[in-house]
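Session log. Operator J.P. requested a structure for one protein chain; no other inputs attached. Running the standard single-chain path with token output.
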Amino acid sequence: MPVLVEVGEDYRIDLADFEAKLSDADAVMISHMRGHTSDMDRIMELADAAGLPVIEDAAHSLGTVWGGRNIGTIGKVGCFSFQSYKLVNAGEGGILITDDPEIAAKAVIMSGAYEENWKKHPGFQNSFCQWQNKLPLYNLRMQNLSAAVIRPQLPEVARRVRDGRRNHDHVAGVLDASGLMRVPAALGPEERAPDSIQFNLAGDWTDAEALAFQREAKARGVSVQVFGLSEGNARAYWNWQFLGDLPELPRTRAMLMRACDVRLPARLTVPELDFIANALVDAARAARA
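Structure written below.
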């Protein structure tokens, strides 16, 4: 049963709420959503003190670095996505990484290494033997074709990170200068690897104005999602019907109602970035007129 914690206007976990709810947890799962990294030093300190494993959902954070360490390698398990919008993509699929042989063996077996097919994987033999026939099988193996598409992209990660950061910071400068939008700054130890940009509508916007901004941007050729005002948006926790009774998270709800998302692929050129940034500023001014 997931226990949700608050998130602030900077898209980072509210550490006071996190600490207050930690005593009831069996594990910690941190989602580095859109590459925004919460304070992993403090999170690991609290989780380690409580004896809880940390799973990093790093689907949006391949290439992001925290305090010199790659995101996804700080907790017990890191999960990455190769879905079509990600930094490295093969259409769909992903990987799990860990340095724990027991977790690795369980994952391989549950992914579909039935009838001792795990013998094709070197190492972990004792761990594999321990879990043979004791876990359900989900047939979640990555296909060879996906792996063949992914592997040539791995040497490109550093360049894509560099280009994506340049693109993000270029557009962020224009949005921040407008006074109508605010891009949360990176935390000190964080080196971002963005392929999109998130920003808050600054000041006292109504729902109607926020929706008007979304329409005005679309009319100018730029698609914007306002997370809390986009019907069925998966980032809005109140749409998570599988949780049952939802908690009250007023800070998180307020943030999502004014948090916006725009794709910024690393391949974009400076003129294209200027087009996007200027369209967003013009749309914001029109919505507030």
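Operator note: The first helix runs from residue 15 to 21.
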